[in-house]
Structures are given as structure tokens and as C-alpha cells.
């Protein structure tokens, strides 16, 4: 049997591969956007089907988005914001300094 490795070691190995950092960042963004939509739907008492109707999407597309499975365009974010009774704000923020 091979040597057992910690999760931190395995993650470090994967993250050292070319392009892994960018892929990880894209996944983080998709997840955070999906989570924000999910939370706002809960606040408004909206189902995925109701959000889909408000945005002109199909329910499975909303489910994929909420799960972080798709990277939306700015126009799609605008449609979601309107459907969620919010204003879209896109900003650039400085990267955190590595510690």
C-alpha cells in the first residue's frame, strides 16, 4: 500500500499544477454567486421554479446556477438581480496579500 497523505498535502499537490489556482478561483466565484442567489430566494420565499419564471430560465438552469455549476454573464446577473429585487454591483477589489 502507498503512503497515506494528509488532505493539506493532497491539496498542495493539486494546487501546484498549472492553472489550478485560476480554476479554484473560478469555482469559488461560482459557488459564492450561487449561494447568494439561494439565500436571497430563501429571504423572499421564492422556489427555484418561481425564480426561473421571473428570469425566463428553466428550473434546472436555476438549480445548476445555485449549485455553482455555471459561470453567469453580466446580463444574466442583471436578470437575476432584478428578479431578486436587488441591484447588481460589480466591483474590483485588491487581492489579499499572501501571508
Automatic annotation (TrEMBL):
GO molecular function: DNA binding
PANTHER family: ANTITOXIN HIGA1, BLL0069 PROTEIN
A Pfam family this chain is assigned to: HTH_3
Organism: Streptosporangium canum
PROSITE patterns: HTH_CROC1
Gene3D superfamilies: lambda repressor-like DNA-binding domains
Domain HTH cro/C1-type: 37-91
Database matches in InterPro entries: Cro/C1-type_HTH, Lambda_DNA-bd_dom_sf, Rad_response_metalloprotease
Protein name: Helix-turn-helix
